[in-house]
Task: inverse folding
């Protein structure tokens, strides 16, 4: 087991509805030493790529993306969730359905912060059905930027997102892939990775 799988096993809580709660160390209370380690690991996995920006989505993606951007020495851009409609023109816009809240949000990034010269590494905390990542890919593509890869802390391998994104041909690196979880027994099974 790697460091993140160990921590999920110790402190993750399986909730009904295929939700894994990691709020004691990743997305409510945050373990900064663990986040630093995540930043180093993504840097190691994507160090051969000419990354110029790290792109994520608010709110919980920011904490994961911050140490990654620091390791690469590049800016971090996060897509904002927005209800307003009169923003096209200055903004790249994508529609993202939230897995946890079951609602749709427009997510926006200012055109000032992504350009065709950018080589983007997309980072998020969880991958479930892939809506968040597809929204971020669409924003990067609207900017004419190159998506160099995607890094996820926790992929739920029993949901379709991972397959969809890999089938699009992207390098998708997930530090922990949960293949099964049982809310009653509280058990979590990880996919074996190299
Ligand atoms: P997707 O768009 O891939 O369906 O879902 C990814 C987004 O939903 C992530 O940005 C994450 O915030 C949230 N999410 C999905 N599954 C879980 C989960 O099991 N636990 C938590 N805490 N967040 C999740």
Result:
């Amino acid at each position: 087991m790697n460091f993140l799988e160990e921590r999920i096993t110790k402190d993750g809580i399986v909730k009904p509805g295929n939700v894994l709660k990691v709020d004691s160390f990743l997305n409510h209370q945050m373990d900064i030493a663990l986040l630093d380690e995540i930043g180093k690991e993504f840097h190691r996995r994507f160090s051969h790529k000419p990354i110029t920006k790290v792109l994520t989505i608010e709110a919980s993606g920011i904490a994961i993306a911050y140490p990654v951007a620091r390791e690469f020495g590049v800016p971090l851009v996060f897509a904002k969730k927005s209800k307003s409609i009169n923003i096209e023109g200055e903004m790249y816009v994508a529609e993202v359905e939230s897995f946890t809240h079951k609602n749709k949000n427009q997510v926006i990034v200012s055109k000032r912060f992504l350009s065709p010269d950018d080589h983007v590494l997309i980072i998020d905390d969880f991958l479930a059905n892939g809506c968040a990542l597809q929204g971020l890919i669409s924003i990067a593509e609207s900017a004419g930027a190159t998506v160099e890869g995607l890094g996820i802390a926790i992929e739920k391998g029993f949901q379709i997102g991972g397959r969809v994104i890999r089938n699009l041909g992207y390098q998708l690196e997930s530090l922990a892939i949960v293949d099964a979880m049982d809310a009653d027994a509280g058990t979590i099974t990880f996919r074996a990775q190299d």
